[in-house]
Write a structure and sequence with these properties.
Elements (H helix, E strand, L loop, with lengths): L12 E6 L8 H14 L3 E4 L4 H4 L9 H12 L3 E5 L7 H6 L26 H18 L5 E5 L16 H14 L4 H8 L22 H27 L6 E2 L1 E2 L8 H4 L7 E3 L8 H21 L5 E5 L18 H11 L2 E6 L26 H14 L13 E4 L2 H9 L6 H16 L6 E3 L10 E4 L9 H10 L3 E5 L20 H5 L1 E8 L6 E5 L11 E12 L3 E6 L8 E8 L2 E6 L1 E2 L2 H14 L13 E8 L2 E8 L5 E4 L5 E3 L5 E2 L1 E4 L4 E7 L1
Parallel strand pairs: 1-2, 1-9, 2-3, 3-4, 4-5, 6-7, 7-8, 8-9, 10-11, 10-12, 12-13, 13-19
Antiparallel strand pairs: 14-16, 15-16, 15-17, 16-20, 17-18, 18-19, 21-22, 22-27, 23-26, 24-25, 24-27
Helix pairs in contact: 5-8, 8-13, 11-12, 13-14, 14-17
């Protein structure tokens, strides 16, 4: 299935955040903006994201003439507009006149009017004032043809603890949220949180305040509450637009997908958008690691709405100012990064920002144009070149990605591990997930990135490394998936707690014990220099020319209904199973009790995928090359991406591929440094 969200858009979008409100004193710059956009092939902008103080310079006085003029000129130049709600940073007059709208910090002090993500989510005054400015904007531009969609707020969740408010109203709202979650039963909460430890038992709801890190479930549920209140605020903003306009809405997701619950936000949005800033200042292996990580995030976004494209709404054509050192993108990398987003399902390449400002905190952030400097630069030439490449790809507009393979990357599990003491950390979880994801991509697979609540229907193979915290009904649903022919695998440190970080009843693995056919005693965490030998009872780990060994973690498990596929061959647990399989119904559930180095992990997955009937999708990838596919009607488009600065040869998957560029048959291809080549086949 393909779904084209914007009927008037006939080309892949290229553009960025446009902030003319910073340049209203320079009419020459504003005129130049339109000329440069046309010369570069820019056909979309996000407009007005932080323009509240310009739109409403004092309470109740609105100034739209400048925005009318900009939208009119953009429309005449063929530039589509995502019009923003300017609510991610409130005006100074609002903060000074109504202090309650300001964020309250952990120490209970009011945040002085500064930064962004600087408002209280529950403030009735803030909701009233945001509804009024959105109402004014939506009423004025609802029927404007140039405006094709709405950009809600900006980067919900902020960074680290920026966006969480600790005022008395938010604390009271949190307490009410807890009453609903625990059925207004304080003893149920006390049991779920194990508060009798250290005599932390609550006698009334008013005693519950965030900040006590010894009560792990308190921190976890504080994160959940904030995610829910963000979602509630998003609905509030959308409702103000819907009074006047039904055009599609989005908000730009960002970061490591851990500062908001995007699984909850996604259903409220008509299309998804993401800000992509892969770190490009390290050594080649570090940069490659970062690109695999960014690939994981891009696939997580696309997996939230699989029936439609998503939109890269922020990226950088040069170098973000927050990178240190500020190492410039090498020739070819800007185009490779941009086309990689297209390959992962985006229908746009957009930047922050079109023109950098002369002052304030992000004046050195890479942009298409640098302040009021020259307009013919290396960056603008690369943007123009990218426009030409995108124009040749318009056939894929509206196409989507689909795959039979998924990895579970669970935001709530990350929150749980951030509040957990002992066991793996959230950072270790992230690295293990990435290691497994990369192993699958190195086999030429396209991989959806989902959470424990996702629909498993479309998949044949699901992996859930370190499923530490089990969400309600997850095990029951994954067991049904296996019984009906699915293949599932998980690893050490799985099934340790429930969704309130309460240890699983009956010991480790919890309800996974029946699915996996094993039980678990404990986990041996190895030093970095330690290795434990393995013996493979079949050909599960590939080439046996060298001795097999694992690293990092060794879980001590017992067989119940499962069969062992490999055993430990050293340490005091030699002879115990390290890899297992449990046949269940028409499918199978596998367990990896030991940490495997990258080459063995890749071999392990190859074995599992072959047995899952996915051998036709497996391709041995050269180092630093990835493949991904998009589908539209009866066509499949294969993107082959060289992420390294060296030439390499790559075989294509077994099929009748032809070059997208010249329609010539192809079974392999030679990739130049940072090259992206595209191939097509008919179904």
């Amino acid at each position: 299935m393909s779904l084209h969200i914007f009927p008037t858009v006939k080309d892949l979008l290229l553009g960025g955040d446009y902030n003319p409100d910073q340049w209203l004193h320079r009419t020459d710059i504003l005129d130049q903006d339109i000329d440069v956009m046309q010369s570069l092939g820019v056909n979309a902008v996000s407009l007005g994201i932080f323009a509240w103080s310009t739109l409403e310079p004092e309470e109740g006085r609105f100034e739209f003439d400048w925005l009318d003029e900009r939208i009119d000129k953009l429309g005449k130049a063929g530039v589509h507009v995502f019009l923003a709600t300017p609510t991610a940073a409130r005006p100074m007059w609002l903060a000074c006149k109504y202090p309650e709208v300001c964020l309250t910090l952990k120490d209970n002090s009011r945040e002085y009017p500064k930064n962004r993500h600087n408002f209280c989510w529950t403030s009735l005054v803030y909701r009233e004032k945001t509804a009024r400015i959105i109402d004014q904007i939506a009423h004025r531009y609802a029927n404007c043809e140039t405006v094709i969609g709405w950009h809600i707020n900006n980067e919900y969740g902020g960074y680290t603890d920026w966006a969480r408010c600790y005022c008395d109203r938010c604390i009271a709202s949190f307490q009410s949220w807890l009453k609903q979650r625990y059925n207004n039963d304080l003893e149920e909460l006390n049991q779920a949180w194990w508060t009798h430890f250290w005599s932390h038992t609550y006698q009334n709801w008013d005693q519950i305040r965030p900040g006590d890190h010894s009560i792990e479930a308190l921190g976890l549920n504080w994160y959940r509450y904030n995610a829910d209140i963000m979602c509630n605020f998003l609905k509030h903003e959308i409702a103000s637009i819907r009074t006047h306009c039904s055009k599609p809405v989005t908000t730009n997701m960002h970061g490591h997908l851990q500062l908001a619950d995007y699984v909850k936000l996604a259903p409220e949005l008509d299309f998804l958008s993401y800000d992509s800033y892969p770190r490009t200042y390290g050594k080649p292996d570090e940069e490659l690691h970062n690109l695999y990580q960014e690939s994981l995030f891009l696939n997580a976004i696309r997996s939230l709405k699989k029936d439609r494209p998503w939109y890269l709404i922020e990226s950088c054509p040069s170098v973000p100012q927050y990178f240190h050192p500020q190492r410039l993108k090498r020739p070819g990398t800007h185009e490779m990064h941009s086309l990689r987003a297209i390959a992962h399902g985006s229908d746009s390449v957009m930047y922050f920002q079109f023109r950098a400002g002369r002052g304030s905190i992000e004046k050195h952030h890479g942009a298409i144009l640098i302040q009021d400097g020259p307009t013919d630069t290396r960056v603008t030439r690369e943007v123009r070149s990218l426009r030409q490449r995108l124009s040749n790809l318009n056939k894929i507009l509206g196409s989507t990605c689909k795959t039979k393979v998924a990895i579970i990357f669970d935001t709530e599990s990350i929150w749980g591990l951030e509040n957990n003491h002992g066991g793996p950390t959230a950072d270790q979880y992230n690295e293990i997930i990435l290691k497994h994801y990369r192993a699958l991509l190195e086999l030429g697979l396209d991989v959806d990135v989902i959470d424990q609540t996702a629909d498993f229907t479309d998949y044949q193979f699901i992996t859930a490394p370190v499923a530490y915290m089990l969400q309600p009904n997850f095990v029951e649903r994954i067991k049904s998936f296996v019984k009906h022919g699915g293949h599932f695998t998980t690893t050490y440190w799985s099934g340790i707690t429930n969704d309130d970080l309460l240890c699983s009843p009956g010991g480790r693995l919890g309800d996974l014990r029946d699915l996996l056919g094993i039980s678990s005693e404990e986990v041996d965490c190895l030093r970095e220099d330690e290795r434990v030998k393995l013996e493979d009872s079949g050909d599960w780990l590939g080439d046996h020319s060298e001795s097999l060994s694992g690293q990092q973690y060794c879980e001590l498990i017992h067989l119940n209904a499962a069969e062992q596929l490999a055993i430990y061959a050293s340490e005091f647990y030699a002879g115990r199973p390290s890899l297992t399989r449990n046949q269940l119904g028409q499918g199978a559930a596998y367990y990896q009790a030991i940490g495997l180095p990258r080459d063995l992990l890749r071999n392990w997955y190859r074995s599992l995928l072959q047995r899952a009937g996915l051998v036709e999708f497996i391709t041995n990838m050269p180092h630093g090359v990835m493949m991904t596919q998009r589908h539209k009607q009866n066509k499949t488009y294969l993107f082959v991406i060289n992420m390294l600065g060296s030439t390499t040869q790559c075989d294509l998957p077994r099929d009748n591929w032809t070059s997208f560029a010249d329609n010539s048959p192809a079974q392999s291809t030679c990739l130049r440094p940072y090259d992206v080549q595209i191939f097509v086949k008919s179904q």
